[in-house]
Here is the input.
Amino acid sequence: MNPMSKIIVIIGAPGAGKGTQARLLSEKYGCPHISTGDILREMARADTPLGRKVKETMAAGRLVSDEILAEVIRTRTSQPDCNNGYILDGYPRTLEQARLLEELASKQGKKQILVHIIVSEEELVKRLTNRRICANCGKSYNLLSDRPKIEGVCDLDGAPLTQRSDDNLGSLSKRFEEYRESTAPLIDYYRQSGRLIELNGELPEGEVFEKLWAAIDGANN
Ligand code: AMP
Here is the structure.
């Protein structure tokens, strides 16, 4: 069975590697990688009341409302490129969002494959404060463990590397708090339903990907 007739949901704390793994899966299966963080960052660039509200919420490390996310996710997943399946990175983050996704999956006739990438908080802080992102292609680097070949420049396209405005200690503590309060109950719910695939996200990127891929294949059989 084609794994991409599914919705692959990647859950994990900020910095767990959701985006990196989703990007690799998307390349492998040729289906869209939908990052709600990226969509919201794009919205936040617009000088409109909604854009300003989203920008403020993200800068504070808080979660954007379930209503806004519902609109974002409905609109994006109804695009034709999602017909054969898609990968969600950063959604759902609350029980309410998970409920909406169940509804959407059943309307779209797609099964969800739920994956949780686990990384300790100590490691997450190290990763996030040293994270740099290509302003053009979005590739992520780490100044401690995965430096670009030339300082400040993306290996892939030579564009400048930037730091996300919410990757600072102030926003981070709020982001972790939101994760513990809103997202951890969702993980418990998925775990109890016996559908959650859990992976050690502290292994090297390539090993996490191999395990992820094997788990997705297994979930299809
Ligand atoms: P990310 O790029 O996934 O780390 O998300 C960055 C920020 O975008 C989060 O800290 C939230 O402010 C917002 N965000 C992304 N996805 C969601 C979501 N599913 N629900 C609420 N807020 C979100």
In short: The first strand starts at residue 7 and ends at 11. The mean pLDDT is 93. Residues 14, 36-37, 40, 57-58, 61-64, 69, 90-91, 93, 97, 166, 175 surround adenosine monophosphate (CB under 6 Å). Strands lie at 7-11, 33-35, 86-89, 112-118, 131-134, 140-142, 161-162, 196-200.
